[in-house]
Design goal:
Number of strands: 21
Bound molecules: guanosine-5'-triphosphate, magnesium ion
Radius of gyration: 33 Å
Mean pLDDT: 68
Strand content: 15-25%
Low-confidence stretches: 1-87, 103-194, 196-200, 639-655
Distance between the termini: 8 Å
C-alpha cells in the first residue's frame, strides 16, 4: 500500500515555552531554613503604618554618592528629600534618570528590590511549597490572585548579596517559573521578564494550538434486500469535522485558562454507514477569550506573526478554521458508466495552526499612579469590583476591571492598573507587562498618594515614567486626584500640591477614597470627558465591519484550489520528482486506497490534470520515484502501448 503519511506527522510541533509550568526541586533549600539568611525587616509591616512608595527618585545629590550600599543611606535620602526645592522637579528627575542610565557606577540598582515570600510556614515546611504555588496559579485562573498577599517587598543589602546568589535561583524556582529566564542576562526580553512572577507573565499572553476536526470517511456499501435484486450502491458520506470558533467572553479578564489547555481540537466527523446513512457532524470547539484579545498566527523563531484580528466586544464570534469535509460514500460515485462503484473517499483533514493570543484590556478609564496610592481602593468605591487592597506596594498584580453605572445606558469601564515603579519604561517591576493595558483607555485618572513625603515629586515621577514608556499614553487626557485627604499630613500638603499643579495649568481633585469623600466628583468628571470622546468617535468615519471569518474563508479558498495547479521539482541525485499543489495534495489525502477503484481514479486524475504529460516532457525515466502530495510512486513506462499509450503508475513500497 502506498505511504500515506501526512505532512502533519512529519513536522515536529514546537514546544510552547510560555505556557508550560516548570517546577524545580531545590537542593539548596535547607540553606534558607538554617537561619543563616535573615532578610531585613520589611519596609512596610502591619496595615495602618504609613505607606511607603517606591516611585520617588532620591534627589540628584544622592546619585552623585559613589554607591548606595546600605539601606541606611536610603533612609538618609528620605530625610533630605524635603529640603529639595519643588521647582524644576521635572528637570531634576530627568537628569537623575539620565545619570542612572548613562553611568554604570552610579546606577541605583532597582533590581535589588526583590520579591520574597514571607509566609513563615513556607520557610519551615518546604516539602509542599511547590504545590502551594501551583495552587495559587490555579486559583488565579478564576480571576482572583489570592497568593498576592504572600509577597512583600524587601530591600536587599549588599551584605546579603553573596547569600542571594545562592538563594536567588532557589527562590525563583519556587515563586517564579522556570530558571531559563535568567540564563541569558543582558538581552532585553530576559531583563524584562526578570522579577515578574509566572502568573503575571502568562495572564496576558498565550500560545495555543487549534485544529479543526477531520471529516468522517465515506463507505462502500450495497443494498441487499429480499425482493430487491441488484440493489445499487448505498454507502453514505462521512460527516463534516468540527469547526474552530473564537468567541469573546465578557466575563473573562485574562488568558490564564490557556496555561493549562494549550491544545484545542474539534471533533472528527462520524463515518458514513450503509443504507445511505451519513456520518454525524464533528463537535465544534469554541475558544473563549476575554475582550481585547489580539490574535496572531504564531511566528517562527521569535518573529511575531501577522495579526489576524482583534476581538473587542463580548459576544463577537469568528469562525477561525472550518472542519474538514466528509468523504463521499460510494452512493455518490454512481454514474451512468459505473453503476457499481467500489470507491469511497477519506474525510478531509481539518486545518490546524498555532495561535498567539495577546490581551490588551478594553477600558474607558485607566487608574494609574504609584504603588500604594489607593488606586484599588478608589475602584472598589466607585464600582462593585472588589480588588485586593492592602497597605503595601504591588498589591495589584493583575489589572482589575470595574463597571461604573450612572444610568441605564451610561456606563464606564474602569481599570485599576498595577502600581508604576520608576524605571517601568525599561521593564522594571511590572513595567511593560501592564503599561500597555492602558493603551486602550481613552482617559487616565492619576491617583497621587497625599500621604507620601512629597506628593508633587511622586506625581512627576509617574508622569515622567508614562512619557518615557509611551508618548501616546502621556498625550491622553488625564485627571489628577490627590488621595488620602483624611490623613493630617495629606491634608496639610494639599494646598501646596494644588498650587503647584495649578501653576502648570492642571486643576487637581482631592478625595478620601476610604471615606468615600470626593470620589463622586472625580468619576463624574471622568464620565463627562469619556462621553465627549465617545461622541467625537461616533462622528469619525465608520470603518467597514471586519469580516471575522476571513481566515476560514482563506482556508476554504485554498481547499478549492484547482487540481490542475501544480509545480514539479526534480532531485537528480535521488531520481525523485516532486509534484506539489494544494489541490493535488488534498486529493491524495482524501483517496482511500483500500478500494479498488480508487487507484484507477487516481491514475485518471493524474492523466487528466496533466501531471503525466508534464513529467514526460521533463524527461522522467523508468524506475524514477514520483512524490505526489504525501504519496510516493514509481514511474513505469507502459509496455503495451495501446492507442492512448497511457503510462502506468504503480504505488511505491508502503511503510
Ligand atoms: N487613610 C487613607 N488610606 C487610604 C485611602 N485610600 C487608600 N488607602 C490605603 O492605602 C493602602 C493602599 O491602598 P490600595 O488601594 O491597595 O493601593 P493601590 O494603589 O491599589 O496599591 P497597589 O495595587 O499596590 O499599586 C491601603 O492600606 C488603603 O487602605 C484614603 O483615602 N485614606
Ligand atoms: Mg492596587
Amino acid at each position: 500500500r502506498p505511504n500515506t503519511n501526512t505532512s502533519r506527522n512529519r513536522t515536529n510541533p514546537k514546544r510552547v515555552s510560555t505556557n508550560t509550568t516548570r517546577r524545580r526541586q531545590n537542593p539548596n533549600r535547607r540553606q534558607l531554613k538554617s537561619g543563616e539568611f535573615r532578610p531585613p525587616p520589611p519596609i512596610t509591616t502591619a496595615a495602618g503604618d504609613t505607606a511607603t512608595t517606591y516611585t520617588r527618585l532620591p534627589p540628584k545629590d544622592d546619585f552623585v554618592l559613589p554607591s548606595l550600599h546600605s539601606s541606611a543611606e536610603i533612609t538618609l535620602s528620605e530625610s533630605t528629600i524635603s529640603t529639595t526645592p519643588a521647582k524644576n522637579l521635572r528637570q531634576e528627575l530627568k537628569d537623575s534618570v539620565d545619570d542612572v542610565e548613562n553611568s554604570e557606577n552610579l546606577r541605583f540598582d532597582y533590581g535589588k528590590f526583590e520579591l520574597y515570600e514571607v509566609n513563615d510556614d513556607d520557610f519551615e515546611d518546604d516539602s509542599d511549597e511547590d504545590d502551594d504555588v501551583g495552587g495559587e496559579i490555579e486559583s488565579s485562573r478564576s480571576g482572583v490572585f489570592e497568593g498576592s498577599g504572600k509577597f512583600e517587598l524587601y530591600e536587599v543589602n549588599d551584605d546579603f548579596e553573596d547569600e542571594f546568589d545562592d538563594v536567588d535561583s532557589e527562590m525563583e524556582g519556587s515563586i517564579f517559573e522556570g530558571g531559563d529566564v535568567f540564563e541569558g542576562e543582558g538581552s532585553d526580553i530576559k531583563e524584562k521578564e526578570k522579577g515578574v512572577p509566572a502568573v503575571m507573565r502568562c495572564f496576558d499572553r498565550a500560545k495555543i494550538f487549534v485544529k479543526a476536526g477531520d471529516g468522517g470517511n465515506g463507505v462502500v456499501a450495497f443494498r441487499r434486500e429480499k425482493f430487491v435484486p441488484l440493489g445499487g450502491p448505498s454507502g453514505g458520506d462521512g460527516g463534516r469535522g468540527g469547526n474552530v470558533y473564537v468567541e469573546v467572553d465578557g466575563s473573562m479578564n485574562s488568558l490564564l485558562p490557556f496555561r493549562k489547555s494549550v491544545h484545542l481540537k474539534a471533533g472528527r466527523g462520524g463515518h458514513g454507514h450503509g443504507k445511505k446513512q451519513f456520518g454525524a457532524k464533528g463537535e465544534d470547539v469554541v475558544v473563549k477569550v476575554p475582550p481585547g484579545t489580539v490574535l496572531r498566527e504564531a511566528g517562527e523563531g521569535g518573529i511575531q506573526g501577522d495579526v489576524l484580528f482583534e476581538l473587542l466586544h463580548p459576544g463577537q464570534r469568528a469562525l477561525l478554521l472550518p472542519g474538514g469535509r466528509g468523504g463521499r460514500g460510494n452512493a455518490s460515485f454512481k454514474t451512468g458508466s459505473n453503476r457499481v462503484p467500489k470507491i469511497a473517499e477519506n474525510g478531509e483533514e481539518g486545518a490546524e495552526m498555532w495561535l498567539e493570543l495577546e490581551l490588551k484590556l478594553v477600558a474607558d478609564v485607566g487608574i494609574v499612579g504609584a504603588p500604594n496610592a489607593g488606586k484599588s481602593t478608589f475602584l472598589s468605591v466607585i464600582s462593585a469590583a472588589q480588588p485586593a487592597i492592602a497597605n503595601y506596594p504591588f498589591t495589584t498584580l493583575l489589572p482589575n476591571l470595574g463597571v461604573v453605572s450612572f444610568d441605564y445606558d451610561a456606563t464606564l469601564v474602569v481599570a485599576d492598573l498595577p502600581g508604576l515603579l520608576e524605571g517601568a519604561h525599561r521593564g522594571f517591576g511590572l513595567g511593560h507587562e501592564f503599561l500597555r493595558h492602558s493603551e486602550r483607555c481613552s482617559l487616565l485618572v492619576h491617583v497621587v498618594d497625599g500621604s507620601s513625603p512629597q506628593p508633587e515629586y511622586e506625581y512627576e515621577a509617574v508622569r515622567l515614567e508614562l512619557e518615557m514608556f509611551s508618548p501616546e499614553l502621556a498625550e491622553k487626557p488625564f485627571l489628577v486626584v490627590y488621595n488620602k485627604m483624611d490623613l493630617p499630613d495629606a491634608y496639610e500638603n494639599w494646598k501646596t500640591f494644588r498650587d503647584s499643579l495649578r501653576s502648570r495649568g492642571i486643576e487637581p481633585f482631592c478625595m478620601s477614597a476610604v471615606k468615600r469623600e470626593g470620589t463622586h466628583e472625580v468619576i463624574c468628571a471622568a464620565y463627562e470627558l469619556v462621553r465627549r470622546k465617545r461622541e467625537a468617535a461616533k462622528e469619525e468615519v465608520r470603518m467597514d465591519p471586519v469580516n471575522l471569518n476571513y481566515v476560514a474563508d482563506m482556508v476554504k479558498k485554498q481547499r478549492a484550489a484547482p487540481i490542475s495547479e501544480f509545480e514539479i521539482t526534480h532531485d537528480s541525485s535521488s531520481k525523485t520528482w516532486y509534484v506539489q499543489g494544494s489541490g493535488l495534495q488534498r486529493f491524495v489525502q482524501m483517496t482511500n486506497w483500500r478500494y479498488m477503484d480508487s487507484d484507477r481514479r487516481f491514475q485518471h486524475v493524474l492523466e487528466a490534470c496533466g501531471v503525466n504529460k508534464s513529467l514526460l516532457k521533463l524527461g522522467v525515466k523508468e524506475g524514477d520515484t514520483v512524490v505526489v502530495g504525501d504519496m510516493e510512486l514509481v514511474w513505469h513506462d507502459s509496455d503495451n502501448s495501446g492507442p492512448t499509450s497511457r503510462k502506468k503508475w504503480a504505488a511505491g513500497p508502503s511503510q
